[in-house]
Design goal:
10 helices; 8 strands; elongated
């Protein structure tokens, strides 16, 4: 009896990508057509307001290899990926963007690494020349800070473009947190990981949905999700400030004892008050970030809500 061909699902989160979907499918299928696997496509519509959902409905009706999930509103890419992983079937899942900045030409290399026994295969951006100088600098700084603060280390310049074995997918599905930083979760679940180098091209179609503010908040989510050091550091700062105040008090006492009292001034007092006040507000802000995340988790709301789905088996994950 011939061995069953393994199934691989390509998971694609989309938001207002009506111009990109057909071109994406044609490009990817042209590359994977000679691979000895059964291929499925699972699109996750993250609350699109254009014709994206209508296009996915039509594709699903005419092609049983295409399925889709439509979330009830925009929950964000991290949640869209979590929804897709919970519904994706098959022996492996490949996560990629519809804009073809994740080059589908890498898929055969991903497969060869997976066939060699690696449970996770990630695309590694060996060059970020397509990014601005500011983005390259801030990205490098983020990876450096994250890996200093966190016990879980992530590989710099690897994103969501990766192949995940079924074991890894099931492990990720066990993680219930709602404020998700999936790059960190890939590292947290472990398993053997390999990388494939590539240079990221420009978008083939459409416009990016990420801006500097979203990236900044994403970085904060990542650091706060995997490290409590930003809170702990304020204990050290408090100790240093207290020690400095005792030293200054001793200096003032000795100076007064031997040299008398100088005419008092207000500059040093004002600087001290403003400096300490700023430190207190910063520490409260950082503590507030962690409390906000605790608040989100303890409400136990569903991670996402589905508005519609097609070509996807029902399950009880929602």
């Amino acid at each position: 009896m011939p061995e069953r061909a393994k199934t691989i699902t390509i998971l694609v989160p989309v938001l207002n990508e009506e111009d990109s979907i057909a071109y994406f499918l044609d490009t990817v299928r042209n590359i994977i057509r000679n691979e000895p696997y059964q291929w499925k496509f699972l699109f996750v519509d993250d609350g699109s307001t254009d014709a994206t959902l209508s296009i996915l409905r039509t594709l699903n009706k005419t092609d049983n290899s295409i399925g889709f999930l439509s979330l009830s509103r925009n929950f964000g890419k991290e949640t869209a990926m979590a929804a897709g992983l919970r519904h994706a079937k098959g022996d492996a899942v490949i996560i990629m963007d519809v804009d073809l900045q994740d080059p589908p030409e890498l898929i055969p290399q991903f497969l060869r690494k997976w066939e060699a026994g690696h449970a996770s295969v990630a695309g590694f951006r060996k060059s970020r020349s397509s990014d601005s100088f500011l983005k390259r600098t801030t990205a490098a700084g983020f990876y450096r800070v994250f890996n200093i603060f966190s016990k879980v280390k992530i590989t710099p310049n690897t994103g969501d473009y990766r192949l995940l074995d079924r074991r890894v997918v099931e492990a990720l599905n066990l993680l219930p947190e709602r404020v998700r930083f999936t790059k960190g979760l890939y590292a947290w679940v472990g398993f053997d990981e390999a990388t494939v180098d590539f240079v990221r091209p420009e978008r083939a179609k459409g416009q990016t949905k990420w801006n500097s503010w979203k990236l900044w908040n994403f970085a904060i989510d990542g650091i706060s999700a995997f490290s409590s050091f930003p809170m702990r550091i304020w204990a050290y700062i408090g100790f240093l400030v207290a020690a400095s105040s005792f030293i200054y008090a001793a200096y003032t006492f000795l100076k007064t004892l031997f040299f008398g009292v100088d005419v008092p001034g207000y500059s040093s007092l004002l600087i001290s008050i403003l400096g300490l006040g700023g430190c207190i507000l910063m520490s409260l802000g950082i503590i507030g970030e962690y409390l906000g995340r605790i608040y989100e988790e303890v409400k136990l709301r569903p991670m996402y809500l589905l508005k519609e789905q097609g070509g996807v088996e029902e399950n009880d994950h929602e």
